[in-house]
Amino acid sequence: MERRWDSLLFVVCLILSFAEIVNGGITSSYVRHANFSLDMPLDSDVFRVPPGYNAPQQVHITQGDHEGKGVIVSWVTQDEPGSKTVLYWAENGGLKKLAEGFILTYKYYNYTSGYIHHCTIEDLEFDTKYYYEVGIGNTSRQFWFLTPPKPGPDVPYTFGLIGDLGQTSDSNRTLTHYELNPAKGQALLFVGDLSYANDYPFHDNARWDTWGRFVERVAAYQPWIWTAGNHEIDFAPEIGERQPI
Ligand SMILES: *[C@@H]1O[C@H](CO)[C@@H](O)[C@H](O)[C@H]1NC(C)=O
Ligand SMILES: *[C@@H]1O[C@H](CO)[C@@H](O)[C@H](O)[C@H]1NC(C)=O
Ligand SMILES: *[C@@H]1O[C@H](CO)[C@@H](O)[C@H](O)[C@H]1NC(C)=O
Ligand SMILES: *[C@@H]1O[C@H](CO)[C@@H](O)[C@H](O)[C@H]1NC(C)=O
Ligand SMILES: [Fe+2]
Protein backbone atom coordinates (compact mmCIF):
# COMPACT_ATOMS: atom_id res chain seq x y z
CA MET A 1 0.00 0.00 0.00
CA GLU A 2 2.71 2.40 1.03
CA ARG A 3 4.61 1.76 -2.18
CA ARG A 4 1.54 2.52 -4.25
CA TRP A 5 1.18 5.90 -2.52
CA ASP A 6 4.85 6.55 -3.16
CA SER A 7 4.52 5.92 -6.82
CA LEU A 8 1.31 7.94 -7.02
CA LEU A 9 3.08 10.85 -5.35
CA PHE A 10 5.92 10.44 -7.81
CA VAL A 11 3.56 10.56 -10.78
CA VAL A 12 1.76 13.61 -9.38
CA CYS A 13 5.09 15.38 -8.87
CA LEU A 14 6.12 14.45 -12.39
CA ILE A 15 2.89 15.87 -13.83
CA LEU A 16 3.23 19.03 -11.75
CA SER A 17 6.81 19.64 -12.76
CA PHE A 18 5.97 18.96 -16.40
CA ALA A 19 3.03 21.36 -16.18
CA GLU A 20 5.45 23.92 -14.74
CA ILE A 21 7.83 23.48 -17.66
CA VAL A 22 5.23 23.74 -20.42
CA ASN A 23 3.13 26.48 -18.84
CA GLY A 24 2.93 29.23 -21.46
CA GLY A 25 0.90 31.46 -19.16
CA ILE A 26 -2.56 32.92 -19.64
CA THR A 27 -2.58 36.28 -21.39
CA SER A 28 -6.27 37.01 -21.01
CA SER A 29 -9.27 36.03 -18.95
CA TYR A 30 -11.50 36.59 -21.99
CA VAL A 31 -14.07 33.88 -22.64
CA ARG A 32 -16.21 34.20 -25.75
CA HIS A 33 -19.94 34.39 -25.14
CA ALA A 34 -21.94 31.38 -26.32
CA ASN A 35 -24.31 33.26 -28.69
CA PHE A 36 -24.23 32.58 -32.40
CA SER A 37 -22.88 35.61 -34.22
CA LEU A 38 -23.88 36.63 -37.74
CA ASP A 39 -21.64 37.60 -40.63
CA MET A 40 -21.06 41.33 -40.81
CA PRO A 41 -23.20 42.92 -43.57
CA LEU A 42 -21.58 43.75 -46.89
CA ASP A 43 -21.70 47.50 -46.19
CA SER A 44 -19.74 47.16 -42.92
CA ASP A 45 -16.82 49.51 -42.31
CA VAL A 46 -14.36 46.59 -42.20
CA PHE A 47 -15.27 45.60 -45.77
CA ARG A 48 -14.87 49.07 -47.29
CA VAL A 49 -13.06 49.18 -50.64
CA PRO A 50 -10.14 51.62 -50.51
CA PRO A 51 -10.86 54.84 -52.45
CA GLY A 52 -9.61 55.52 -55.96
CA TYR A 53 -9.78 53.74 -59.29
CA ASN A 54 -8.30 50.21 -59.17
CA ALA A 55 -6.78 50.84 -55.72
CA PRO A 56 -4.98 47.82 -54.21
CA GLN A 57 -7.13 46.00 -51.67
CA GLN A 58 -6.82 42.88 -49.49
CA VAL A 59 -3.12 43.62 -48.98
CA HIS A 60 -1.38 40.91 -46.95
CA ILE A 61 2.08 39.48 -46.44
CA THR A 62 3.50 36.09 -45.65
CA GLN A 63 6.96 34.74 -45.03
CA GLY A 64 8.93 34.45 -48.27
CA ASP A 65 11.78 32.13 -47.28
CA HIS A 66 12.89 29.79 -44.48
CA GLU A 67 15.23 32.26 -42.80
CA GLY A 68 13.18 35.42 -42.40
CA LYS A 69 14.86 37.52 -45.10
CA GLY A 70 12.01 37.23 -47.58
CA VAL A 71 8.42 38.45 -47.63
CA ILE A 72 5.66 37.77 -50.16
CA VAL A 73 3.32 40.71 -50.66
CA SER A 74 -0.13 39.98 -52.12
CA TRP A 75 -3.00 42.26 -53.12
CA VAL A 76 -5.98 42.50 -55.41
CA THR A 77 -7.06 45.17 -57.89
CA GLN A 78 -10.66 44.99 -59.02
CA ASP A 79 -10.94 46.93 -62.28
CA GLU A 80 -7.88 45.97 -64.32
CA PRO A 81 -4.42 44.42 -63.82
CA GLY A 82 -2.42 46.78 -61.61
CA SER A 83 1.29 47.44 -61.33
CA LYS A 84 3.17 44.23 -60.45
CA THR A 85 5.84 46.23 -58.67
CA VAL A 86 6.40 46.62 -54.94
CA LEU A 87 8.48 49.61 -53.87
CA TYR A 88 10.22 49.03 -50.54
CA TRP A 89 12.83 50.59 -48.31
CA ALA A 90 14.31 50.09 -44.87
CA GLU A 91 13.30 52.63 -42.26
CA ASN A 92 16.90 53.72 -41.74
CA GLY A 93 18.27 52.58 -45.09
CA GLY A 94 17.07 55.31 -47.41
CA LEU A 95 17.61 53.55 -50.74
CA LYS A 96 14.34 52.49 -52.36
CA LYS A 97 14.19 49.19 -54.21
CA LEU A 98 11.74 47.56 -56.58
CA ALA A 99 10.57 43.96 -56.76
CA GLU A 100 8.51 42.56 -59.62
CA GLY A 101 5.64 40.11 -59.11
CA PHE A 102 2.97 38.40 -61.18
CA ILE A 103 -0.82 38.42 -61.57
CA LEU A 104 -3.39 35.63 -61.42
CA THR A 105 -7.16 35.44 -61.77
CA TYR A 106 -9.61 32.60 -61.24
CA LYS A 107 -13.26 31.78 -61.76
CA TYR A 108 -15.56 29.88 -59.45
CA TYR A 109 -19.04 29.04 -60.73
CA ASN A 110 -20.31 32.53 -61.75
CA TYR A 111 -17.71 34.48 -59.73
CA THR A 112 -14.69 36.04 -61.41
CA SER A 113 -11.89 37.21 -59.18
CA GLY A 114 -10.14 40.54 -59.36
CA TYR A 115 -6.47 40.67 -60.38
CA ILE A 116 -4.48 38.89 -57.69
CA HIS A 117 -0.91 40.16 -57.41
CA HIS A 118 1.92 38.30 -55.67
CA CYS A 119 5.42 39.70 -55.31
CA THR A 120 8.38 38.28 -53.39
CA ILE A 121 10.85 40.63 -51.76
CA GLU A 122 14.20 39.01 -50.98
CA ASP A 123 17.52 39.72 -49.28
CA LEU A 124 16.03 41.78 -46.47
CA GLU A 125 18.01 42.55 -43.32
CA PHE A 126 16.98 40.86 -40.07
CA ASP A 127 15.26 42.82 -37.32
CA THR A 128 14.51 45.79 -39.52
CA LYS A 129 11.45 47.88 -40.22
CA TYR A 130 10.58 48.13 -43.90
CA TYR A 131 8.00 50.29 -45.61
CA TYR A 132 6.40 49.08 -48.80
CA GLU A 133 4.11 50.57 -51.39
CA VAL A 134 1.75 48.93 -53.90
CA GLY A 135 -0.40 50.49 -56.62
CA ILE A 136 0.02 53.39 -59.00
CA GLY A 137 0.00 57.16 -58.56
CA ASN A 138 -2.67 58.59 -56.31
CA THR A 139 -4.14 55.16 -55.57
CA SER A 140 -0.86 53.70 -54.29
CA ARG A 141 -0.98 52.53 -50.69
CA GLN A 142 1.81 52.31 -48.13
CA PHE A 143 2.30 49.72 -45.36
CA TRP A 144 5.17 48.43 -43.25
CA PHE A 145 6.48 45.26 -41.59
CA LEU A 146 9.29 44.18 -39.29
CA THR A 147 11.60 41.35 -40.29
CA PRO A 148 12.32 38.72 -37.62
CA PRO A 149 15.63 38.56 -35.75
CA LYS A 150 18.42 36.33 -37.07
CA PRO A 151 17.50 32.73 -36.17
CA GLY A 152 19.43 31.17 -33.30
CA PRO A 153 18.97 29.47 -29.95
CA ASP A 154 16.87 31.46 -27.47
CA VAL A 155 16.00 34.23 -29.92
CA PRO A 156 12.63 35.55 -28.79
CA TYR A 157 9.84 35.77 -31.34
CA THR A 158 6.13 35.95 -30.56
CA PHE A 159 3.62 34.12 -32.71
CA GLY A 160 -0.10 34.75 -32.57
CA LEU A 161 -2.43 31.84 -33.17
CA ILE A 162 -5.88 32.18 -34.75
CA GLY A 163 -8.18 29.64 -36.34
CA ASP A 164 -11.81 29.57 -37.55
CA LEU A 165 -11.87 33.35 -37.88
CA GLY A 166 -14.73 33.91 -40.33
CA GLN A 167 -16.29 37.36 -40.74
CA THR A 168 -18.91 37.76 -38.04
CA SER A 169 -18.93 40.57 -35.51
CA ASP A 170 -17.23 38.12 -33.14
CA SER A 171 -14.49 37.67 -35.77
CA ASN A 172 -13.99 41.41 -35.62
CA ARG A 173 -13.77 41.26 -31.84
CA THR A 174 -11.21 38.44 -32.06
CA LEU A 175 -9.06 40.44 -34.46
CA THR A 176 -9.25 43.54 -32.28
CA HIS A 177 -8.36 41.44 -29.27
CA TYR A 178 -5.28 40.18 -31.10
CA GLU A 179 -4.28 43.70 -32.15
CA LEU A 180 -4.59 45.05 -28.61
CA ASN A 181 -2.92 42.12 -26.83
CA PRO A 182 0.09 43.43 -24.91
CA ALA A 183 2.02 40.26 -25.85
CA LYS A 184 2.27 41.79 -29.37
CA GLY A 185 2.30 38.94 -31.86
CA GLN A 186 5.00 39.46 -34.51
CA ALA A 187 3.67 36.85 -36.93
CA LEU A 188 0.49 34.84 -36.97
CA LEU A 189 0.00 31.12 -37.41
CA PHE A 190 -3.42 30.68 -38.96
CA VAL A 191 -4.65 27.18 -38.30
CA GLY A 192 -7.31 26.97 -41.01
CA ASP A 193 -10.91 28.03 -41.76
CA LEU A 194 -10.50 31.56 -43.03
CA SER A 195 -13.51 33.23 -44.65
CA TYR A 196 -16.31 30.63 -44.39
CA ALA A 197 -17.34 31.76 -47.90
CA ASN A 198 -18.25 28.15 -48.57
CA ASP A 199 -21.24 28.50 -46.22
CA TYR A 200 -22.88 30.80 -48.79
CA PRO A 201 -24.96 29.64 -51.76
CA PHE A 202 -22.58 28.72 -54.59
CA HIS A 203 -19.70 29.27 -52.12
CA ASP A 204 -20.05 32.96 -52.96
CA ASN A 205 -16.40 33.85 -53.46
CA ALA A 206 -17.19 37.56 -53.05
CA ARG A 207 -17.04 36.66 -49.33
CA TRP A 208 -13.36 35.86 -49.84
CA ASP A 209 -12.88 39.43 -50.98
CA THR A 210 -14.71 40.88 -47.98
CA TRP A 211 -12.61 38.66 -45.73
CA GLY A 212 -9.41 39.83 -47.42
CA ARG A 213 -10.39 43.44 -46.81
CA PHE A 214 -11.37 42.67 -43.23
CA VAL A 215 -8.04 41.14 -42.17
CA GLU A 216 -5.86 43.64 -44.07
CA ARG A 217 -5.56 45.87 -41.03
CA VAL A 218 -3.34 43.20 -39.43
CA ALA A 219 -2.28 40.93 -42.30
CA ALA A 220 -0.64 43.77 -44.27
CA TYR A 221 1.71 44.53 -41.36
CA GLN A 222 2.91 41.11 -40.20
CA PRO A 223 3.26 37.74 -41.91
CA TRP A 224 0.35 35.38 -41.55
CA ILE A 225 1.37 31.77 -42.12
CA TRP A 226 -1.43 29.60 -43.40
CA THR A 227 -2.79 26.12 -43.20
CA ALA A 228 -6.02 25.12 -44.95
CA GLY A 229 -9.04 23.87 -43.03
CA ASN A 230 -12.16 22.03 -44.11
CA HIS A 231 -13.86 25.36 -44.99
CA GLU A 232 -11.20 25.86 -47.66
CA ILE A 233 -12.54 22.83 -49.52
CA ASP A 234 -14.50 24.18 -52.48
CA PHE A 235 -15.47 20.83 -54.00
CA ALA A 236 -19.05 21.36 -55.22
CA PRO A 237 -19.78 19.04 -58.16
CA GLU A 238 -23.46 20.13 -58.13
CA ILE A 239 -22.36 23.50 -59.55
CA GLY A 240 -19.60 21.98 -61.68
CA GLU A 241 -16.74 22.74 -59.28
CA ARG A 242 -14.68 19.55 -59.08
CA GLN A 243 -11.34 20.90 -57.89
CA PRO A 244 -11.10 20.24 -54.15
CA ILE A 245 -9.54 23.62 -53.30
C1 LIG B 1 -27.10 36.28 -25.96
O1 LIG B 1 -28.46 36.03 -26.34
C2 LIG B 1 -29.40 36.26 -25.31
C3 LIG B 1 -30.76 35.79 -25.79
O2 LIG B 1 -31.02 36.24 -27.08
C4 LIG B 1 -29.36 37.75 -24.95
O3 LIG B 1 -30.28 38.02 -23.90
C5 LIG B 1 -27.95 38.14 -24.50
O4 LIG B 1 -27.88 39.52 -24.26
C6 LIG B 1 -26.93 37.76 -25.58
N1 LIG B 1 -25.58 37.99 -25.06
C7 LIG B 1 -24.63 38.63 -25.77
C8 LIG B 1 -23.30 38.78 -25.11
O5 LIG B 1 -24.83 39.07 -26.89
C1 LIG C 1 -6.60 60.25 -58.85
O1 LIG C 1 -6.34 61.08 -59.95
C2 LIG C 1 -7.36 61.07 -60.95
C3 LIG C 1 -6.94 61.92 -62.11
O2 LIG C 1 -5.56 62.14 -62.15
C4 LIG C 1 -8.66 61.56 -60.35
O3 LIG C 1 -9.69 61.47 -61.32
C5 LIG C 1 -9.03 60.69 -59.16
O4 LIG C 1 -10.17 61.19 -58.52
C6 LIG C 1 -7.88 60.65 -58.14
N1 LIG C 1 -8.22 59.69 -57.10
C7 LIG C 1 -7.93 59.87 -55.82
C8 LIG C 1 -8.28 58.76 -54.87
O5 LIG C 1 -7.43 60.88 -55.40
C1 LIG D 1 -24.48 33.84 -59.31
O1 LIG D 1 -25.66 33.06 -59.41
C2 LIG D 1 -26.56 33.23 -58.30
C3 LIG D 1 -27.72 32.26 -58.49
O2 LIG D 1 -28.24 32.31 -59.77
C4 LIG D 1 -27.01 34.67 -58.21
O3 LIG D 1 -27.84 34.84 -57.08
C5 LIG D 1 -25.80 35.57 -58.09
O4 LIG D 1 -26.18 36.93 -58.08
C6 LIG D 1 -24.84 35.33 -59.25
N1 LIG D 1 -23.63 36.09 -59.02
C7 LIG D 1 -22.96 36.70 -59.98
C8 LIG D 1 -21.71 37.39 -59.61
O5 LIG D 1 -23.38 36.71 -61.14
C1 LIG E 1 -14.70 46.18 -36.10
O1 LIG E 1 -13.77 46.53 -35.10
C2 LIG E 1 -13.16 47.78 -35.33
C3 LIG E 1 -12.05 47.96 -34.29
O2 LIG E 1 -12.49 47.62 -33.04
C4 LIG E 1 -14.21 48.88 -35.27
O3 LIG E 1 -13.63 50.12 -35.52
C5 LIG E 1 -15.27 48.59 -36.31
O4 LIG E 1 -16.30 49.54 -36.24
C6 LIG E 1 -15.85 47.19 -36.15
N1 LIG E 1 -16.75 46.90 -37.22
C7 LIG E 1 -17.79 46.05 -37.14
C8 LIG E 1 -18.66 45.93 -38.35
O5 LIG E 1 -18.01 45.36 -36.16
FE1 LIG F 1 -12.87 24.81 -37.92
TrEMBL record:
Its cofactor is Zn(2+); Fe cation. GO terms for molecular function: acid phosphatase activity; metal ion binding. Residues 1-24 form the signal peptide. Pfam families: Metallophos, Pur_ac_phosph_N. Its EC number is 3.1.3.2. It catalyses: a phosphate monoester + H2O = an alcohol + phosphate. Keywords: Glycoprotein, Hydrolase, Iron, Metal-binding, Signal, Zinc. Residues 56-147 form the Purple acid phosphatase N-terminal domain. Residues 158-235 form the Calcineurin-like phosphoesterase domain. Belongs to the metallophosphoesterase superfamily. Purple acid phosphatase family. PANTHER family: ACID PHOSPHATASE RELATED, FE(3+)-ZN(2+) PURPLE ACID PHOSPHATASE 12. This is Purple acid phosphatase. The lineage of its organism: Eukaryota, Viridiplantae, Streptophyta, Embryophyta, Tracheophyta.
